[in-house]
Design goal:
The chain is built from nine helices and eight strands. By secondary structure, the protein is α/β, with parallel strands linked by helices. Strands 1, 2, 3, 4, 5, 6, 7 and 8 form an eight-stranded mixed β-sheet that branches. Helix 4 links the parallel strand 2 (about 65-70) and strand 3 (about 90-95). Helix 6 (about 155-165) runs antiparallel to helix 9. The protein starts with 6 loop residues before the first helix and ends with a strand. It binds S-adenosylmethionine. S-adenosylmethionine binds near residues 73, 97 and 118. S-adenosylmethionine binds near residues 48, 51, 70 and 118.
């Protein structure tokens, strides 16, 4: 890993396009719960290279605003959106989840994958309050994060922080639900399971056979091998103290 490079940028450099703990399976659950159609106004927070936004625009024809803090990821998103011919459907810009550049009550759906886990608890609350503010009444918030299956998880959290080079704060299922309820959401429904980000099946589901082979051949290069092994071990921990959680909440 390059000095200061965070885990999702490392994986993106290897060729990974979905940078989330429960992969496509969890995203598909969120999408099935989001009530998407062509008339819906959608905000994707932490859109990174635009993988989900492009999939949504192709599947439903809806309009999507994407925001992320990472300029380089946004440049890549712009290239991917142009390559897919979706410039009239998707607009991306640099913005912070905690201070969104949108009016109150302006979106039908907010989707935010693999970002809240990275924030300390007060920042999580601030971001979720912003999602509540910009959603229309009745709108859906769709999130996807890392979930603790036990209270006794400090060692594995520490290993995760070291492996991905970010001070992450995953929560238990109850604490994730409480976060959304405390910010005013109701009908909070969730789906959880084993993390698939770096499992062989999860990688093939997310990236296809050729995509997975390309990622693995990059991962095995001398300069990447150590970091990949460290991440692989944490994300495939046999004790399963870390799961993914997908949550659908309604304003
Ligand atoms: C693990 S990646 C997930 C990317 C994408 N959502 C996915 O699931 O593939 C986390 C993303 O969150 C973005 N991010 C982190 N903090 C943010 C914030 N406060 N506001 C907006 N984006 C943020 C990062 O730049 C990065 O692109």
């Amino acid at each position: 890993m390059k000095k200061d490079e965070v885990g999702h940028n490392f994986l993106a450099r290897l060729g990974k396009t979905r940078l989330r703990p429960g992969g496509k399976k969890a995203t598909d659950w969120l999408i099935a719960n989001g009530d998407f159609n062509a008339d819906k106004k959608v905000l994707e927070v932490a859109c990174n290279m635009g993988t989900t936004a492009i999939g949504l625009a192709q599947q439903f024809g809806c309009h999507i605003e994407g925001v992320d803090l990472d300029e380089q990821a946004l440049e890549k998103a712009k290239q991917n959106i142009a390559a897919a011919g979706l410039q009239d459907k998707i607009n991306v810009q640099r913005a912070n989840a905690m201070k969104l550049p949108f009016e109150d009550n302006s979106f039908d759906i907010v989707i935010n994958e693999a970002m809240l886990t990275m924030l300390p608890i007060q920042a999580k609350t601030k971001a979720v309050e912003e999602y509540f503010r910009v959603l229309k009444p009745g709108g859906f918030l769709l999130t996807h994060d890392v979930m603790l299956t036990t209270e006794d998880a400090e060692p594995i959290i520490q290993q995760l922080r070291e492996a991905i080079n970010i001070t992450v704060t995953p929560l238990t299922r109850e604490d994730w639900k409480t976060l959304f309820l405390d910010c005013g959401f109701h009908n909070v429904d969730s789906f959880h399971g084993e993390m698939t980000l770096l499992s062989p099946k999860g990688m093939i589901d997310d990236e296809g056979v050729f995509g997975t082979l390309r990622i693995l051949s990059n991962a095995l290069k001398a300069e990447n091998r150590q970091t990949f092994k460290k991440m692989f071990r944490v994300f495939n921990d046999p004790d399963k103290k870390l799961n993914f959680i997908a949550v659908c909440s309604q304003k």
